[in-house]
Amino acid sequence: MQTAQQQPIPGPEIDLALDRATQELNTSYVDLCERVERLTQELHQSRTQLMRELAEKEVIFQRLSALVQALPGGMLLVDRHDIIRDANPHAIELVGEPVIGESWSSVERRSLNLRYESAEGDKRRHVSVSVQPLGNSGEKLILITDTTALHESQQLESQKRRLMAMGEMAARLAHQIRTPIASTTLYLAQLARADLKDNERSDICDNLSTALRNVEGTIDSMLGFVRGDARELVPLFLQDVMQEFEALVRDGLDLGVDQLTVTTVDRSVRINGAREDLVGALSNLVCNAIQASGEAPEIYVSVNAVDAGSIQIRVRDHGPGISDEHLPHIFDPFYTTRAAGTGLGLAVVAMTVNQHGGDISARNHPTGGAEFVISLPMLAPSE
User: Fold this and answer.
1) pLDDT for the residue numbered 1
2) According to the model, what pLDDT value does residue 314 have?
3) What's the domain count of the chain?
4) How far apart are CA 329 and CA 327, in angstroms?
């Protein structure tokens, strides 16, 4: 059985198909070349833009790096494990080597006790430390500022003010002690009399002792204010302070049981304080209350807890009170309403209370008399 043979494709149709395929290939190639050219241009533009941005960022980085290096303060970069990873030169100068790779906790403890050599000798350097967290990475930026010059400037300014106050006090001191010194001279002259009886001699000695105590008290008040040095504060039982104060006042001022009433204090109440300064401040308030009360003083001293962290000591009398004119100024240095006063007693009391982290106020009690209120921070049982 014979099969039919395939008829060959005529030559013109093959050529036409080849031409069409060639044209399509040429069109595709041209289109591809145009796309490649566009992509190349876009890539070049992107690369140029990227290089420009990188160059700008490099300039910004260099500028920022130079700024950090030139900062007058120290900068430390601390990772989340408390390890210092970077530091500028001023930070290294402030805290001292080694720094990089050290824990910030150890460097901080070390930097708080730095000393430096000056024309006046070895001095302690004062620094201020600020911690800034960097996002959620756990890293933090430590800023250290040298405040030594500021601290010394403040000390010099404080010293200058105190020297000016001392000059004013010297003039006041000369005026205040002139009268008791004159009395002392007179009493000493009387003691030299041959006809002096024993009882007269005893009275003169008592008067002489009183005059000398007045001079001593005036000088102590003035020096205490000028010195202004804060005592070292240690944990104290307030009960001990109040008992010592009461014994001193009763013996020294010869007060009867009805003339001074002091409430009891629980043994659990503790404060940070300097015992002598607190006893002196309370005694000063009682002395002022007695002077204001006249012949029959009645002084009440009470202690009350305000909350878990503070205590109040109130000193109240039944005198005429404090006039509205004088009330805002009674704690000002040299302000006094008495001819024989120095104007420093209450100023020293206020300074002592402030050094103990507390505050003091005065008011006229609704039922009569003046009342001074001292607020002091109280130590927690765990401290």
Assistant:
1) 47
2) 92
3) 4
4) 6
Are residues 305 and 378 in contact, defined by beta-carbon separation less than 8 angstroms? yes
Q: Where are the beta strands (DSSP E) in 134-265?
A: 140-146, 234-237, 260-262
Q: What is the DSSP string of 266-328?
A: -TT-EEEE-HHHHHHHHHHHHHHHHHHH-SS--EEEEEEEEETTEEEEEEE--S----TTTGG
Give which of 312, 157, 287, 289 is closest to 221, Cα–Cα: 287
Q: Where are the beta strands (DSSP E) in 169-233?
A: none
CATH of the domain at 96: 3.30.450.20
Residue with tokens 């044209």: 23
Q: Is residue 272 located within the same domain as residue 363?
A: yes
Name the residue type at position 81: H
- The tens digit of pLDDT for each residue in 45-58 reads 888 888 888 888 77
DSSP 359: E
H or E stretch covering 84: strand 84-87
pLDDT of residue 338: 60
* Distance between CA atoms of residues 162 and 102, nearest Å: 44
What is the pLDDT at residue 144?
81
- pLDDT higher than 60, residue 7: no
Together in a domain, 220 and 111: no
Strands 260-262 and 299-307: parallel
Q: Which tokens in the block code for residue 41?
A: 């241009």
CA dihedral 202→208→211→213, nearest 10 degrees, is -80
Same domain flag for 199 and 238: no
> Are 193 and 212 members of one domain?
yes
Burial of 78 (0-12, 13-18, 19+ CB in 10 A): buried
Going 337 to 342 to 347 to 352, the CA torsion angle's sign is negative
Range of 298's domain?
234-377
The half-sphere exposure of 233 on its side-chain side, counting CA atoms within 13 A, is 18
> What are the C-alpha distances in Å from 312 to residues 248, 269, 302, 372?
21, 11, 8, 10
Helices and strands counted in the chain (H then E): 8, 13
Which of 227, 256, 271 is the C-terminal boundary of a domain?
A: 227
The structure's pTM equals: 0.46
Q: Evaluate if residue 343 carries a pLDDT over 80.
A: no
* pLDDT tens figures, 15-63: 788 888 888 888 888 888 888 888 888 888 888 888 888 888 777 767 7
Structure-token pair, residue 89: 């030169």
